[in-house]
Amino acid sequence: MKPYVWILISAVVVIFATIIGIIIATSGGSSKSSTQKNSDNTLVVWRGIDNDEVFKEAIKEYEEENPELKIKVVKKDLMDYELNSINALLSDDPPDIWSIPSSWIPRHQDKLSSAPTGFLADNPSKAKENLEANKKSIEESFAPIVAQDAVVGNDVLGLPLFVDTLALVVNPTMINVSSKGLFELLDNNSADQPERTKEETALLEQGPRYWSEFIKLSEMLTQKNGDKITRAGSAIGATDNVTNSADILATLMLQSQTQMSSSDQTMATFNLSQSKNTGDNYYPGREALDFYTKFANPSESRYTWNKDMPNDMQAFVDGKVAMIFAYSYQLKELINKNPGLKYAMLPLPQVEGADQAIDAGYYWLETVPKSSQHQEEAWSFLKYLVKSGLSEYHSFVDRPYPVLSDDVPTIEKRIERKNPWTFAQQTAKSWYTGPSPKEVNTIFKNMIRSVNQGESITNAIDLAASKTTETYQGL
């Protein structure tokens, strides 16, 4: 064969080999990159509340015990948190731990992995065949509301770092001023007033245990000039300027033993009649709505608030209202903005004659998405966090602990404990708001607003129940 032919063949072979090499290198590089993304030993934690500082020490200790692992906490904007989270879960780089409000569980449970069987037990190796071990661990470790929300069947879908509750926050300086004026008034009244003075003095000193006492205290603290409210006794009855109006109303329904939804969770039932032990029918949902909205009805003696008042939180800071309803994180925000704010916390009033208190609960759950490539490692870190890292977390955030306690005061004794965030999580309840909790919250606000504008209680609650049912059914 002629030399130039060999040269030509060699050149072709070199060029072909080079092309193949490039293809292999490129393919290999992509494969390696993909492998690195999936095998990268970094747990990414997405949160809409708190920053990475609250986990700094816990993460440091965990990484020292697990040197092959790194943990990265990412704080996301709460405004677009859900949308951005869903996009991330659908991408090839999802978070390994996703912190979400407990009310989001029905909406997103198909995206969440459950804790490995027996994993949360004290001795996982012995419990790995026990399908109920994780559920039992949740029931024995955390406030009852956690098992109500985080457990589906026997599957545990998330773990809590706190359980917040709604409390009555009062301005003690207003109460003191009002009580002084009250004493002067009563001294000039008839001889049968001393007993009444004793009751009202106790109410001013201790606060209300029951809603009936709350009405009386609110009336005592409300100041009016004709029909105009110059200082509100309490911020309740309306909706747009009452931050937690939907939660207050829902809790009133729960305290009245309202069945909020059907047993199969396909229909809202808070508008329907129920049977008493006597066999008589009554409408606890209607009664709760009527009770709430009367505080914003000028024709009622308890009238203390209306739609023209400022936002309740700001009104409290400005000294325009004596009592508001707030979660601990909301009060903390007020204190941070107003360090000199004077306040006292009292437990949420209850229905007189009830066997047990019922409080409104609010908390987030730390979950592990199914799309995570590090599910086992993520669950291991979460288990460590709730068992060993809670003290460090709470030293930063000062939120109510989520752990189970048998130190639950009776309704009569709750008021003596003053700080409700040391015990109210044990009696916190939630209700099924379905796959669209934000929409249901809006429905409740609209229900209140319609009554404030003159709609009948029956029509307003029936419409709200109908619309809530539509959200259950995805309509």
TrEMBL record:
> Which Gene3D superfamilies does this entry report, sorted A to Z?
Periplasmic binding protein-like II
* Membrane-spanning ranges: 6-27
Q: Identify the SUPFAM superfamilies for this entry.
A: Periplasmic binding protein-like II
Alphabetically sorted, this entry's keywords are: Membrane, Transmembrane, Transmembrane helix
- Entry protein name: ABC transporter substrate-binding protein
Cell cycle as UniProt keyword:
no
Signal peptide per UniProt: none
Q: Which InterPro entries match?
A: Bact_solute-bd_prot1, SBP
The yes or no answer to whether the keyword Glycosyltransferase is present is: no
